[in-house]
Amino acid sequence: MSKTTIPTGGITADAINATLIADDAINSEHYTDASIDTAHVADSQITAAKTSGVGGLIKTHNAYNASSVTTLTLDGIFTSSYGIYRVVGYVIPATDGAGIEMQLRNASSANFANDSDQYRSMTAGHRITSSSDTVESHTNGDYAAGHWKVNFGGESNSFDAPICFDMMFYDPLQAVVNGKNAHWRVSHHGNDGKLYYHYGSGIYTTNASADAAGIRIDMSSGDIKRHKVTVYAFEGSNAA
């Protein structure tokens, strides 16, 4: 005769094994608080979807090349999934005195038009001289140009010194936005022997149909000897 009721005292320790437990049958109400530790969470199981509503950065793109390139293009890094992006990295110029020039690119991997000088940018910051502790202020800008001028004070390539940058982009892929906006911070060792730190901003003035899906980075002269760039999206910044 089979039993349908077994008193708790009649079940010995460890008598209920995996074969007696149906799949997907244990509810979370039976878990002891704080009982799920790191060892029981498999690698790569906490996805972006599971962090919805939680602030943070999501890595969406990574580019590294130890070889020289003429132009660095990052296509498809801005999507409709997010509205705010952070682009951080460095480039090492192959030519002494070169600086970063940046253009936006569309979803067809083509550069934004610059025939009518739609790019406007300005940069302000400080530099310290090589012979004293004097800190100097410095400014630069372009009201109508074919690219954003990201840094001033040409980089020194004698030490393979990088131009390090941290950039923010706001709703780059939104067709309703008239103009694309970004701002940045940059540090580098100049070919004049001075240490530079500066910040700047840029706007692309155009009609509302221009959606930026990527960026193009060139040096003002020569190639890019080496580069490392990572793109992050802000969780919760879903494009409007």
Main beta sheet = 8 strands, antiparallel
Distance between the termini: 66 Å
Order of helices and strands: EEEEEEEEEEEE
Helical amount? under 10%
Estimate what percentage of residues fall within beta strands.
Answer: 35-45%
Give the class-level CATH name.
Mainly Beta
Mean pLDDT: 83
Total count of strands: 12
Specify the number of helices.
0
Which segments are poorly predicted (pLDDT under 50) over 5 or more consecutive residues? Answer: none
- Shape verdict: elongated
What count of structural domains? 1
What's the architecture in CATH terms? Sandwich
Q: Structural class of the secondary elements?
A: mainly beta
Any idea what the radius of gyration is? 27 Å
Stated plainly, the CATH topology is called Jelly Rolls
Please list the strands of the largest sheet in the order they lie side by side.
1-12-3-8-9-10-5-6
